[in-house]
Fold:
Amino acid sequence: MKNCKLSYLCLSLGLAVFIVACGTQNEHLSKGKELIKSDKRRKEERAVREFKLAVQQQPDIAEAHYLLGFYDSQEFYEPGMPAWEKASIVERGNHMFRAYQAEQRKYLETLIFETLRDDELDVQNAALVALQQVYRKGDRNRLLSQLEKAMKSNDNRDRHDAHWVLGHLGKEDPGTLVPILVKLLDHGRMETRLNAVKALGEVGSEQAIPALAALIESGSARWKRDREKPEVRQLAVAALGKIGGAAVPELVKIVQNKGSSLRVDAIRALSNLGDEKAVVPLLDALKAQSSREVVMPLAN
Structure:
C-alpha cells in the first residue's frame, strides 16, 4: 500500500512538473503575440526575442516557428552578426517549414492563402522558401492541389500568388509542373488561363512550346468559341519570348504573318532575345509599317 501511494505521489509530481513546464514554454509565445498586438516601440523586434525563447524551450512549437519566420528581420541586427545571418530569407523560410512539419494542413493553407498575400516582399520570399521545401520534403501532392485551387480561385491575388510559386517550382521540376500548367490552359476562367501562361513563361521550359503555339494559333479558328482571348494570346507570345531557344521559330512565324495582330508582340520578344535566327525577320519587320510602336534595344 505504501509503495502504491509513493508511486502515485511520484506520478502526480511528474504530471505537475510537466504542466508547469508546458505553461512556461508557451508563456514566451503568448508574450510575443501580445507585443505584436500592442502599440509599444520596437514591438516586432521584442516579440521576435520571445518567439526565439519559445522555440528554445519547445523546439516543435509550430506557431512560434511560424511567427519567427514571419517577423524576424535582418533590420533588427548588425550586418554580419550571427543573429543577422539567422534572420535571412532562407532561415525565415526554414522556420515556416518547421511550422508546416508540426501542423501540415493548417500551415500549408496559411502559407498559400495568407502569408503570400503579405505586403512585405521578404515575408513573401520566406513563404516561397518554405513551400519549395514542402515540395521537396513534404506532401507534394497536397501542395500542388492547393496551388491549383488557388489558380482556379475567383480572387485575383490567390491566382497571382499561385502562378508565382508554380513558376518557381517549375524551374526545379518542369517535367511535373508543365503538364499541370498546360491543363489549366483549358480552364473556363480567363484569368486562370492568363496566370497559367505567365507561369509557363517563368518556368521557361521548351516542353510548353506546343501548347503555347496552339493557343496563339487559336486566334484564327473558324468558330469564336474556339478562339482564345486576345490578351491571353498576347501573353503567350511573351511567354515564348521568355523560353527562347526552340521557341524562336514560332515567334518568327508570327512575325512573317503580316496579318497577325500579335506581330508587334513577337517582334518585341525576338528583339529582346537577340537570337541570330531572328535577324532577317526583324529587318523585314522594320521595313513594314505598323500602327503599334516597337521599341527595339540596340546591341552594344
About this structure: Residues 4-13, 15-25 have pLDDT under 50 and may be disordered. The radius of gyration is 27 Å.
